[in-house]
Design brief:
Distance between the termini: 20 Å
Radius of gyration: 23 Å
Number of helices: 1
Strand content: over 45%
Strand order of the largest sheet: 23-22-25-26-1-20-21-24
Number of domains: 2
Shape: elongated
CATH architecture of the largest domain: Sandwich
Order of helices and strands: EEEEEEEEEEEHEEEEEEEEEEEEEEE
CATH superfamily of the largest domain: BT2081, beta-jelly-roll domain
CATH topology of the largest domain: Jelly Rolls
Largest sheet: 8 strands, antiparallel
Helix content: under 10%
Structural class: mainly beta
Length: 301
């Protein structure tokens, strides 16, 4: 079933909206001094012997606080960043991967806390600052999935990090949209090791200032004329939605290098859509000039 996804146009004096990521700078801590909205529920085995004594798995922790994730004061900005370290379960003879994911609840990191985090904007890029200290052939990952209101995955991104980064390094990647649809929820997280790859005791991964660059699904500024454009991703024709398409004076499309790819004047019949079939896949900027000034936005081809 085809699902429609709209992209808002922003005024020239505005800026690209940022999708809300709770506690994106890891500055908010819970009463247990761990990061709000970020964590993971890890299963440990306990049993009670015939004398009523509790016994649990014997864990060798890399973190003195016996944690797989925790706030560190070695931050890129502010007071805290998120740090992840591995541990070794001596009882089962297996490694435990340091990881944390975004939760819909500030305290409960289990599935009951909310694996899917609501968003009101359409994320285009994931960025963050990180340090990475692999103690072996480990591969750290950052991941995000974007889902529509039915839970159908419409976009995803997996970032792999293998090289040592002893100082904070900035990384930004485009989110890959595979299906049309309206973004309603995201899942997001970080891990010291991707599934199936080696897990080494002593590996450390630090993350700070997580950001989703996005375009909102609702009008971000008080403009009377231009509301949105659709569909996204677009294949052949891009349509503008406006109270008065005849009020459009000019439309300009620019690629990521700043090169003008398309320019249309007042006489164009905008109700017929804008032919963008010739454009290569990518993210484009669009400028729409109307009676009250210029409105800017982005769309995905």
């Amino acid at each position: 079933m085809r699902k429609k996804l709209c992209i808002v146009l922003l005024a020239v004096f505005g800026f690209m909206a940022k999708a809300q990521v709770p506690n994106s700078g890891f500055e908010s801590l819970n009463s247990n001094n761990n990061t709000s909205y970020w964590g993971e529920a890890h299963l440990l085995v306990f049993h009670v012997d015939s004398n009523g004594v509790f016994h649990g798995d014997s864990i060798v922790w890399d973190d003195p606080g016996s944690r797989l994730y925790f706030p560190t004061t070695d931050a890129y900005q502010g007071m805290y960043a998120l740090e992840m370290r591995n541990a070794f379960n001596y009882t089962t003879g297996s490694m435990m991967v340091g990881n944390a994911r975004l939760s819909g609840d500030s305290v409960d990191y289990s599935a009951f806390g909310g694996v899917y985090v609501p968003v009101s904007q359409h994320p285009l890029d994931l960025s963050f600052y990180y340090k990475y200290f692999p103690a072996g052939p480990d591969t750290a990952i950052a991941y995000i999935t974007v889902n529509d209101s039915n839970g159908t995955e419409i976009a995803n991104l997996l970032i792999e990090i293998m090289d040592t980064a002893s100082s904070y390094t900035y990384i930004s990647r485009h989110i890959n949209y595979t299906l049309p649809g309206t973004a309603a929820y995201i899942t997001m997280g970080f891990s010291n090791s991707k599934p199936g790859s080696p897990v080494t005791f002593g590996t450390r991964f630090q993350v700070d200032e997580v950001n989703l660059q996005s375009v909102g699904l609702k009008q971000a500024v008080d403009t009377k004329e231009f509301i949105d454009c659709y569909p996204v991703p677009v294949t052949d024709k891009l349509y503008l939605k406006s109270k008065d398409l005849n009020a459009i004076k000019r439309v300009r499309v620019v690629n990521a290098l700043g090169e003008e790819m398309l320019s249309l004047d007042e006489g164009y019949i905008y109700s017929a859509g804008i032919d963008v079939a010739f454009l290569a896949p990518g993210i484009y900027s669009i400028e729409v000039q109307g009676m009250n000034g210029i409105v800017k936005g982005k769309f995905v081809k």
